[in-house]
Amino acid sequence: MDLKNAKTIAVVGLSGNPERASFKVAKYLKENGYDIIPVNPTEAEVLGKTSYPDLMSLPAGISLDIVNIFRKSEAVGPIVDQAIKRRAKMIWMQEGIVNEEARKKAQDAGIDVVMDSCIMKVHKRLIGRDNMKYDLIIVGGGPAGLTAGLYGARGGLKTLLLEKSMPGGQAAMTERIENYPGFPQGIGGPELMMSFMEQATRFGAEFKTEEVNKVDFSSRDKLLVTENGNYSAPAVIIATGSRPRFLDVPGEKEYHGRGVSYCATCDGAFFREKKVLVAGGGDSALEEAMFLTKYAGEVVLVHRRDSFRAAKVLQERAKKNEKLRFVLDTVIEEIKGGSKGVEQVMLRNVKTGEVTAEPVDGVFVFVGNIPNTQFLAGAVELTEEGYIKTGDLLMTSVPGVFAAGDVRKKFLRQVSTAVGDGAEAAMAAERFINELE
Ligand SMILES: Cc1cc2nc3c(=O)[nH]c(=O)nc-3n(C[C@H](O)[C@H](O)[C@H](O)COP(=O)(O)OP(=O)(O)OC[C@H]3O[C@@H](n4cnc5c(N)ncnc54)[C@H](O)[C@@H]3O)c2cc1C
Known about the structure:
By secondary structure, this protein is an alpha/beta fold. Helices cover 26% and strands 25% of the residues. The protein has ten helices and 27 strands. The protein is elongated. The two termini are 33 Å apart.
Protein backbone atom coordinates (compact mmCIF):
# COMPACT_ATOMS: atom_id res chain seq x y z
CA MET A 1 0.00 0.00 0.00
CA ASP A 2 1.18 3.51 -0.62
CA LEU A 3 -0.28 6.94 -0.02
CA LYS A 4 -1.22 7.39 -3.67
CA ASN A 5 -3.46 4.31 -3.75
CA ALA A 6 -4.96 4.65 -0.27
CA LYS A 7 -8.62 5.66 0.21
CA THR A 8 -9.43 5.23 3.89
CA ILE A 9 -7.26 6.74 6.60
CA ALA A 10 -8.00 6.25 10.31
CA VAL A 11 -6.43 9.15 12.20
CA VAL A 12 -5.68 8.02 15.77
CA GLY A 13 -5.46 10.92 18.22
CA LEU A 14 -7.36 13.27 15.89
CA SER A 15 -8.26 16.41 17.79
CA GLY A 16 -11.33 18.54 17.08
CA ASN A 17 -9.28 21.68 17.78
CA PRO A 18 -8.51 23.38 14.45
CA GLU A 19 -5.21 24.66 15.91
CA ARG A 20 -3.84 21.15 16.49
CA ALA A 21 -1.57 19.50 13.95
CA SER A 22 -3.71 16.36 13.77
CA PHE A 23 -6.78 18.43 12.78
CA LYS A 24 -4.86 20.38 10.10
CA VAL A 25 -3.42 17.20 8.63
CA ALA A 26 -6.76 15.34 8.62
CA LYS A 27 -8.55 18.33 7.12
CA TYR A 28 -5.93 18.51 4.39
CA LEU A 29 -6.25 14.79 3.67
CA LYS A 30 -10.04 15.06 3.55
CA GLU A 31 -9.82 17.98 1.10
CA ASN A 32 -7.59 15.82 -1.03
CA GLY A 33 -10.18 13.11 -1.38
CA TYR A 34 -9.32 10.67 1.42
CA ASP A 35 -12.04 9.12 3.59
CA ILE A 36 -11.03 10.14 7.13
CA ILE A 37 -12.08 8.08 10.17
CA PRO A 38 -11.47 9.96 13.45
CA VAL A 39 -10.22 7.78 16.34
CA ASN A 40 -10.16 9.57 19.68
CA PRO A 41 -12.13 8.69 22.88
CA THR A 42 -12.33 12.37 23.93
CA GLU A 43 -14.07 13.55 20.75
CA ALA A 44 -17.60 12.69 19.59
CA GLU A 45 -17.25 13.98 16.08
CA VAL A 46 -14.45 15.57 14.04
CA LEU A 47 -14.66 16.97 10.49
CA GLY A 48 -18.31 15.92 10.34
CA LYS A 49 -17.53 12.25 11.05
CA THR A 50 -18.21 10.12 14.14
CA SER A 51 -15.11 9.65 16.26
CA TYR A 52 -14.39 6.14 17.60
CA PRO A 53 -12.67 5.48 20.95
CA ASP A 54 -10.20 3.03 19.37
CA LEU A 55 -9.57 1.00 16.23
CA MET A 56 -11.36 -2.05 17.65
CA SER A 57 -14.59 -0.03 17.91
CA LEU A 58 -14.75 0.66 14.17
CA PRO A 59 -17.67 -1.03 12.44
CA ALA A 60 -16.72 -4.37 10.94
CA GLY A 61 -16.20 -4.37 7.21
CA ILE A 62 -14.26 -1.07 7.10
CA SER A 63 -11.18 -1.62 5.02
CA LEU A 64 -8.37 0.30 6.70
CA ASP A 65 -5.80 1.43 4.18
CA ILE A 66 -3.73 3.61 6.50
CA VAL A 67 -3.67 4.10 10.28
CA ASN A 68 -2.16 7.52 10.83
CA ILE A 69 -0.98 7.90 14.45
CA PHE A 70 -0.82 11.16 16.44
CA ARG A 71 0.14 9.85 19.89
CA LYS A 72 3.26 9.84 22.04
CA SER A 73 5.91 7.33 20.91
CA GLU A 74 5.45 5.20 24.05
CA ALA A 75 1.68 4.94 23.49
CA VAL A 76 2.04 3.54 19.97
CA GLY A 77 2.39 -0.17 20.91
CA PRO A 78 -1.30 -0.97 21.68
CA ILE A 79 -2.46 1.05 18.65
CA VAL A 80 -0.21 -1.02 16.40
CA ASP A 81 -1.55 -4.22 18.01
CA GLN A 82 -5.08 -3.09 17.13
CA ALA A 83 -4.06 -2.06 13.62
CA ILE A 84 -2.64 -5.56 13.08
CA LYS A 85 -5.88 -7.11 14.33
CA ARG A 86 -7.95 -4.83 12.07
CA ARG A 87 -5.74 -5.81 9.14
CA ALA A 88 -4.63 -2.27 8.31
CA LYS A 89 -2.50 -2.16 5.20
CA MET A 90 -0.19 0.62 6.34
CA ILE A 91 0.80 2.35 9.58
CA TRP A 92 1.98 5.93 9.42
CA MET A 93 3.56 7.38 12.59
CA GLN A 94 3.64 11.17 12.37
CA GLU A 95 6.77 13.32 12.53
CA GLY A 96 8.43 12.94 15.95
CA ILE A 97 6.85 9.56 16.71
CA VAL A 98 9.43 6.81 16.92
CA ASN A 99 8.80 3.29 18.21
CA GLU A 100 11.16 0.71 16.74
CA GLU A 101 9.56 -2.21 18.57
CA ALA A 102 6.10 -1.39 17.24
CA ARG A 103 7.46 -0.86 13.79
CA LYS A 104 9.12 -4.27 13.75
CA LYS A 105 5.99 -5.95 15.00
CA ALA A 106 3.86 -4.36 12.28
CA GLN A 107 6.38 -5.20 9.59
CA ASP A 108 6.57 -8.81 10.82
CA ALA A 109 2.79 -8.89 10.38
CA GLY A 110 3.24 -7.76 6.75
CA ILE A 111 2.15 -4.16 7.25
CA ASP A 112 3.98 -1.30 5.53
CA VAL A 113 5.26 1.22 8.08
CA VAL A 114 6.32 4.85 7.77
CA MET A 115 7.79 6.32 10.96
CA ASP A 116 8.65 9.88 12.04
CA SER A 117 7.20 11.49 8.92
CA CYS A 118 4.39 13.97 8.20
CA ILE A 119 1.81 12.41 5.90
CA MET A 120 0.66 15.84 4.72
CA LYS A 121 4.16 16.96 3.69
CA VAL A 122 4.74 13.71 1.84
CA HIS A 123 1.41 14.08 0.06
CA LYS A 124 2.25 17.65 -0.95
CA ARG A 125 5.55 16.46 -2.38
CA LEU A 126 3.78 13.69 -4.25
CA ILE A 127 1.30 16.10 -5.77
CA GLY A 128 4.08 18.51 -6.62
CA ARG A 129 5.91 15.77 -8.45
CA ASP A 130 2.84 14.81 -10.38
CA ASN A 131 2.48 18.42 -11.43
CA MET A 132 5.97 18.49 -12.86
CA LYS A 133 4.58 17.49 -16.23
CA TYR A 134 5.19 19.78 -19.16
CA ASP A 135 4.77 19.78 -22.93
CA LEU A 136 8.34 20.91 -23.47
CA ILE A 137 11.37 20.95 -21.20
CA ILE A 138 14.50 22.82 -22.18
CA VAL A 139 17.77 22.05 -20.43
CA GLY A 140 20.12 25.04 -20.39
CA GLY A 141 19.27 28.73 -20.22
CA GLY A 142 21.85 30.20 -22.61
CA PRO A 143 20.90 31.96 -25.88
CA ALA A 144 19.71 28.68 -27.47
CA GLY A 145 17.62 27.60 -24.47
CA LEU A 146 16.09 31.03 -23.86
CA THR A 147 15.11 31.34 -27.51
CA ALA A 148 13.59 27.86 -27.45
CA GLY A 149 11.71 28.92 -24.28
CA LEU A 150 10.33 32.00 -26.02
CA TYR A 151 9.17 30.05 -29.09
CA GLY A 152 7.81 27.13 -27.06
CA ALA A 153 5.78 29.26 -24.64
CA ARG A 154 4.60 31.65 -27.35
CA GLY A 155 3.45 28.63 -29.32
CA GLY A 156 1.20 27.69 -26.40
CA LEU A 157 3.30 24.82 -25.02
CA LYS A 158 3.58 24.41 -21.26
CA THR A 159 7.29 25.10 -21.23
CA LEU A 160 9.88 24.62 -18.49
CA LEU A 161 13.45 25.85 -18.67
CA LEU A 162 15.97 24.23 -16.33
CA GLU A 163 19.22 26.16 -15.88
CA LYS A 164 21.85 25.19 -13.37
CA SER A 165 23.16 28.69 -12.74
CA MET A 166 22.51 32.22 -14.05
CA PRO A 167 20.40 32.66 -17.19
CA GLY A 168 22.33 33.66 -20.30
CA GLY A 169 25.03 30.97 -20.43
CA GLN A 170 28.41 31.83 -21.91
CA ALA A 171 26.99 34.91 -23.62
CA ALA A 172 26.13 36.43 -20.22
CA MET A 173 29.78 36.09 -19.26
CA THR A 174 30.94 38.01 -22.31
CA GLU A 175 31.51 41.65 -21.55
CA ARG A 176 30.58 42.94 -24.99
CA ILE A 177 28.95 41.32 -28.00
CA GLU A 178 29.64 43.19 -31.22
CA ASN A 179 28.43 40.71 -33.81
CA TYR A 180 24.83 40.10 -32.78
CA PRO A 181 22.60 41.82 -35.34
CA GLY A 182 20.46 44.73 -34.25
CA PHE A 183 23.03 46.40 -32.00
CA PRO A 184 25.30 48.45 -34.27
CA GLN A 185 27.26 49.76 -31.29
CA GLY A 186 27.49 46.32 -29.67
CA ILE A 187 25.76 45.34 -26.46
CA GLY A 188 26.82 43.99 -23.08
CA GLY A 189 26.45 40.20 -22.92
CA PRO A 190 24.58 40.27 -19.57
CA GLU A 191 22.23 43.01 -20.80
CA LEU A 192 21.40 41.12 -24.00
CA MET A 193 20.80 37.91 -22.07
CA MET A 194 18.55 39.58 -19.50
CA SER A 195 16.34 40.79 -22.35
CA PHE A 196 16.27 37.22 -23.78
CA MET A 197 15.16 36.00 -20.36
CA GLU A 198 12.51 38.71 -19.98
CA GLN A 199 11.04 37.90 -23.39
CA ALA A 200 10.92 34.15 -22.77
CA THR A 201 9.24 34.49 -19.37
CA ARG A 202 6.81 37.18 -20.64
CA PHE A 203 5.31 34.55 -22.90
CA GLY A 204 4.96 32.16 -19.99
CA ALA A 205 8.08 29.98 -20.04
CA GLU A 206 8.72 28.80 -16.49
CA PHE A 207 12.34 29.18 -15.38
CA LYS A 208 13.86 27.08 -12.60
CA THR A 209 17.42 27.21 -11.32
CA GLU A 210 18.09 23.48 -11.19
CA GLU A 211 20.75 21.26 -12.67
CA VAL A 212 19.68 18.20 -14.62
CA ASN A 213 21.76 15.31 -13.32
CA LYS A 214 20.10 12.36 -14.99
CA VAL A 215 17.75 11.59 -17.85
CA ASP A 216 15.62 8.68 -18.96
CA PHE A 217 14.38 8.96 -22.53
CA SER A 218 13.03 5.41 -22.80
CA SER A 219 9.31 6.31 -22.50
CA ARG A 220 6.95 8.56 -24.43
CA ASP A 221 7.24 11.09 -21.59
CA LYS A 222 10.94 11.77 -21.18
CA LEU A 223 12.17 12.06 -17.61
CA LEU A 224 14.65 14.66 -16.34
CA VAL A 225 15.98 14.38 -12.81
CA THR A 226 17.22 17.26 -10.66
CA GLU A 227 17.89 17.47 -6.94
CA ASN A 228 14.35 18.80 -6.46
CA GLY A 229 12.51 16.05 -8.27
CA ASN A 230 11.53 14.52 -11.57
CA TYR A 231 10.21 16.46 -14.54
CA SER A 232 8.66 14.92 -17.60
CA ALA A 233 7.59 15.98 -21.06
CA PRO A 234 7.06 14.35 -24.44
CA ALA A 235 9.53 16.81 -26.00
CA VAL A 236 12.92 17.87 -24.66
CA ILE A 237 15.47 20.34 -26.01
CA ILE A 238 19.04 20.01 -24.82
CA ALA A 239 20.78 23.38 -24.95
CA THR A 240 23.54 22.90 -22.39
CA GLY A 241 26.31 24.47 -24.46
CA SER A 242 29.97 23.72 -24.09
CA ARG A 243 32.80 25.17 -22.14
CA PRO A 244 36.32 25.95 -23.32
CA ARG A 245 39.08 23.73 -22.02
CA PHE A 246 41.42 25.78 -19.88
CA LEU A 247 45.21 25.79 -19.89
CA ASP A 248 45.21 25.64 -16.10
CA VAL A 249 48.23 27.90 -15.67
CA PRO A 250 48.74 30.74 -13.20
CA GLY A 251 47.26 34.03 -14.41
CA GLU A 252 44.75 32.42 -16.77
CA LYS A 253 41.74 32.92 -14.50
CA GLU A 254 42.94 36.29 -13.26
CA TYR A 255 43.19 37.76 -16.77
CA HIS A 256 40.15 36.01 -18.27
CA GLY A 257 38.27 38.85 -20.00
CA ARG A 258 41.27 41.18 -19.58
CA GLY A 259 43.45 39.82 -22.35
CA VAL A 260 42.83 36.10 -22.00
CA SER A 261 40.10 34.95 -24.39
CA TYR A 262 38.63 31.73 -25.73
CA CYS A 263 36.84 33.25 -28.72
CA ALA A 264 38.64 34.99 -31.61
CA THR A 265 35.43 35.86 -33.48
CA CYS A 266 34.24 37.63 -30.35
CA ASP A 267 37.34 39.38 -29.10
CA GLY A 268 39.73 39.61 -32.08
CA ALA A 269 38.66 43.15 -32.94
CA PHE A 270 39.87 44.39 -29.54
CA PHE A 271 43.47 43.63 -30.61
CA ARG A 272 43.91 45.76 -33.69
CA GLU A 273 47.63 46.12 -34.53
CA LYS A 274 48.51 44.46 -31.24
CA LYS A 275 50.54 41.33 -30.53
CA VAL A 276 48.62 38.25 -29.47
CA LEU A 277 49.56 34.73 -28.61
CA VAL A 278 47.49 31.71 -29.59
CA ALA A 279 47.77 28.43 -27.70
CA GLY A 280 46.86 25.16 -29.43
CA GLY A 281 47.69 22.95 -32.39
CA GLY A 282 44.37 21.74 -33.78
CA ASP A 283 42.19 23.01 -36.59
CA SER A 284 40.49 25.64 -34.48
CA ALA A 285 43.82 27.02 -33.15
CA LEU A 286 45.17 27.47 -36.70
CA GLU A 287 41.90 28.80 -38.09
CA GLU A 288 41.47 31.25 -35.24
CA ALA A 289 45.12 32.31 -35.41
CA MET A 290 44.70 33.14 -39.11
CA PHE A 291 41.45 34.93 -38.34
CA LEU A 292 43.27 37.00 -35.72
CA THR A 293 45.87 38.19 -38.26
CA LYS A 294 43.06 40.30 -39.76
CA TYR A 295 43.24 42.47 -36.70
CA ALA A 296 46.47 41.86 -34.83
CA GLY A 297 49.85 43.19 -35.94
CA GLU A 298 51.52 39.92 -34.95
CA VAL A 299 50.19 36.51 -33.94
CA VAL A 300 52.47 34.02 -32.16
CA LEU A 301 51.16 30.47 -32.27
CA VAL A 302 52.49 28.35 -29.42
CA HIS A 303 52.15 24.60 -29.66
CA ARG A 304 53.48 21.98 -27.28
CA ARG A 305 54.56 19.54 -30.02
CA ASP A 306 56.80 19.89 -33.08
CA SER A 307 53.96 19.10 -35.49
CA PHE A 308 50.31 20.09 -35.76
CA ARG A 309 47.18 18.00 -35.49
CA ALA A 310 45.46 20.45 -37.82
CA ALA A 311 44.57 19.58 -41.43
CA LYS A 312 47.51 19.82 -43.91
CA VAL A 313 45.72 22.39 -46.03
CA LEU A 314 45.29 24.62 -43.00
CA GLN A 315 48.95 24.19 -42.05
CA GLU A 316 50.07 25.20 -45.56
CA ARG A 317 47.86 28.25 -45.50
CA ALA A 318 49.03 29.23 -42.04
CA LYS A 319 52.70 28.93 -42.99
CA LYS A 320 52.17 31.35 -45.87
CA ASN A 321 50.64 33.94 -43.54
CA GLU A 322 53.32 36.56 -42.91
CA LYS A 323 51.78 37.82 -39.69
CA LEU A 324 51.93 34.37 -38.10
CA ARG A 325 54.98 33.14 -36.19
CA PHE A 326 55.22 29.57 -34.84
CA VAL A 327 56.83 28.59 -31.56
CA LEU A 328 56.85 24.79 -31.34
CA ASP A 329 57.71 22.31 -28.56
CA THR A 330 56.64 25.02 -26.16
CA VAL A 331 54.06 25.42 -23.43
CA ILE A 332 52.71 28.43 -21.55
CA GLU A 333 53.89 28.36 -17.96
CA GLU A 334 52.30 31.54 -16.71
CA ILE A 335 50.36 34.60 -17.87
CA LYS A 336 51.45 37.86 -16.31
CA GLY A 337 50.03 41.38 -16.46
CA GLY A 338 49.07 44.55 -14.68
CA SER A 339 46.00 46.65 -14.04
CA LYS A 340 45.29 47.04 -17.78
CA GLY A 341 45.46 43.35 -18.50
CA VAL A 342 47.89 40.83 -20.00
CA GLU A 343 51.48 42.01 -20.53
CA GLN A 344 53.59 38.90 -21.02
CA VAL A 345 53.62 35.12 -20.96
CA MET A 346 56.29 32.83 -19.64
CA LEU A 347 57.07 30.12 -22.21
CA ARG A 348 58.92 26.87 -21.52
CA ASN A 349 60.54 24.80 -24.23
CA VAL A 350 59.57 21.21 -23.42
CA LYS A 351 62.77 19.80 -25.00
CA THR A 352 65.41 22.13 -23.54
CA GLY A 353 63.51 23.28 -20.43
CA GLU A 354 64.48 26.88 -21.22
CA VAL A 355 62.02 29.51 -19.95
CA THR A 356 61.61 32.81 -21.80
CA ALA A 357 59.34 35.81 -21.36
CA GLU A 358 57.28 36.86 -24.41
CA PRO A 359 55.66 40.29 -24.25
CA VAL A 360 52.06 40.11 -25.59
CA ASP A 361 48.80 42.06 -25.35
CA GLY A 362 46.49 39.08 -25.45
CA VAL A 363 46.34 35.31 -25.15
CA PHE A 364 43.81 33.22 -27.09
CA VAL A 365 43.38 29.68 -25.85
CA PHE A 366 42.14 27.00 -28.29
CA VAL A 367 43.06 23.75 -26.63
CA GLY A 368 39.63 22.25 -27.13
CA ASN A 369 36.08 22.49 -25.88
CA ILE A 370 34.17 20.31 -23.51
CA PRO A 371 30.49 19.91 -24.44
CA ASN A 372 28.16 19.74 -21.45
CA THR A 373 26.75 16.31 -22.22
CA GLN A 374 28.07 14.20 -19.33
CA PHE A 375 24.66 14.17 -17.60
CA LEU A 376 23.15 12.42 -20.63
CA ALA A 377 25.20 9.28 -19.94
CA GLY A 378 24.81 8.00 -23.49
CA ALA A 379 21.03 8.55 -23.72
CA VAL A 380 21.49 10.19 -27.14
CA GLU A 381 24.12 9.62 -29.80
CA LEU A 382 27.25 11.78 -29.45
CA THR A 383 30.30 12.45 -31.58
CA GLU A 384 33.70 11.22 -30.38
CA GLU A 385 34.28 14.65 -28.82
CA GLY A 386 30.99 14.41 -26.93
CA TYR A 387 28.84 16.77 -29.05
CA ILE A 388 25.25 15.75 -29.75
CA LYS A 389 24.59 14.48 -33.25
CA THR A 390 21.48 16.06 -34.77
CA GLY A 391 19.55 15.22 -37.90
CA ASP A 392 16.54 16.70 -39.58
CA LEU A 393 14.95 19.54 -37.59
CA LEU A 394 17.67 19.25 -34.93
CA MET A 395 16.29 15.94 -33.66
CA THR A 396 18.78 13.72 -31.83
CA SER A 397 18.92 9.93 -32.10
CA VAL A 398 15.87 9.82 -29.76
CA PRO A 399 12.53 10.92 -31.26
CA GLY A 400 11.22 13.94 -29.36
CA VAL A 401 14.64 14.92 -28.01
CA PHE A 402 16.20 17.88 -29.82
CA ALA A 403 19.53 19.66 -29.40
CA ALA A 404 20.24 23.35 -29.94
CA GLY A 405 23.25 25.64 -29.73
CA ASP A 406 26.87 24.94 -28.88
CA VAL A 407 26.13 21.48 -27.46
CA ARG A 408 25.47 19.99 -30.86
CA LYS A 409 27.90 19.17 -33.63
CA LYS A 410 27.88 22.22 -35.86
CA PHE A 411 30.09 24.54 -37.87
CA LEU A 412 29.78 27.89 -36.06
CA ARG A 413 29.23 28.37 -32.36
CA GLN A 414 27.92 31.89 -31.80
CA VAL A 415 24.96 33.64 -30.19
CA SER A 416 23.32 34.20 -33.58
CA THR A 417 23.51 30.51 -34.52
CA ALA A 418 22.37 29.42 -31.03
CA VAL A 419 19.31 31.66 -31.42
CA GLY A 420 18.47 30.11 -34.80
CA ASP A 421 18.85 26.63 -33.34
CA GLY A 422 16.63 27.45 -30.35
CA ALA A 423 13.83 28.73 -32.57
CA GLU A 424 14.03 25.77 -34.95
CA ALA A 425 14.20 23.15 -32.19
CA ALA A 426 11.16 24.61 -30.40
CA MET A 427 9.07 24.68 -33.58
CA ALA A 428 10.18 21.14 -34.38
CA ALA A 429 9.24 20.08 -30.84
CA GLU A 430 5.79 21.63 -31.27
CA ARG A 431 5.28 19.75 -34.51
CA PHE A 432 6.46 16.52 -32.85
CA ILE A 433 3.93 16.95 -30.02
CA ASN A 434 1.10 17.72 -32.45
CA GLU A 435 1.86 14.56 -34.40
CA LEU A 436 1.78 12.50 -31.20
CA GLU A 437 -1.78 13.54 -30.42
C1 LIG B 1 34.50 34.27 -23.70
C2 LIG B 1 33.47 34.09 -24.77
C3 LIG B 1 33.13 35.16 -25.53
C4 LIG B 1 32.17 34.99 -26.53
N1 LIG B 1 31.83 36.08 -27.27
C5 LIG B 1 30.89 35.96 -28.24
C6 LIG B 1 30.52 37.07 -29.06
O1 LIG B 1 31.05 38.19 -28.93
N2 LIG B 1 29.58 36.85 -30.00
C7 LIG B 1 28.97 35.66 -30.21
O2 LIG B 1 28.10 35.54 -31.05
N3 LIG B 1 29.31 34.58 -29.45
C8 LIG B 1 30.27 34.70 -28.49
N4 LIG B 1 30.64 33.61 -27.76
C9 LIG B 1 29.99 32.32 -28.04
C10 LIG B 1 28.59 32.29 -27.43
O3 LIG B 1 28.64 32.72 -26.08
C11 LIG B 1 28.02 30.89 -27.51
O4 LIG B 1 28.06 30.46 -28.84
C12 LIG B 1 26.59 30.85 -27.00
O5 LIG B 1 26.51 31.32 -25.68
C13 LIG B 1 26.04 29.44 -27.08
O6 LIG B 1 24.77 29.41 -26.55
P1 LIG B 1 24.12 28.06 -25.97
O7 LIG B 1 22.79 28.47 -25.47
O8 LIG B 1 24.20 27.01 -26.99
O9 LIG B 1 25.08 27.58 -24.80
P2 LIG B 1 25.62 28.34 -23.47
O10 LIG B 1 25.67 29.80 -23.65
O11 LIG B 1 26.88 27.64 -23.14
O12 LIG B 1 24.52 28.01 -22.41
C14 LIG B 1 24.32 26.72 -21.91
C15 LIG B 1 23.67 26.82 -20.55
O13 LIG B 1 23.34 25.50 -20.11
C16 LIG B 1 23.55 25.41 -18.72
N5 LIG B 1 23.74 24.01 -18.35
C17 LIG B 1 24.78 23.19 -18.67
N6 LIG B 1 24.57 21.95 -18.18
C18 LIG B 1 23.37 21.98 -17.53
C19 LIG B 1 22.60 21.00 -16.82
N7 LIG B 1 23.01 19.75 -16.70
N8 LIG B 1 21.42 21.38 -16.27
C20 LIG B 1 20.97 22.65 -16.40
N9 LIG B 1 21.67 23.61 -17.06
C21 LIG B 1 22.84 23.29 -17.63
C22 LIG B 1 24.79 26.26 -18.49
O14 LIG B 1 24.86 26.71 -17.14
C23 LIG B 1 24.57 27.39 -19.47
O15 LIG B 1 23.92 28.49 -18.88
C24 LIG B 1 31.58 33.75 -26.75
C25 LIG B 1 31.93 32.67 -25.95
C26 LIG B 1 32.87 32.83 -24.98
C27 LIG B 1 33.24 31.67 -24.12
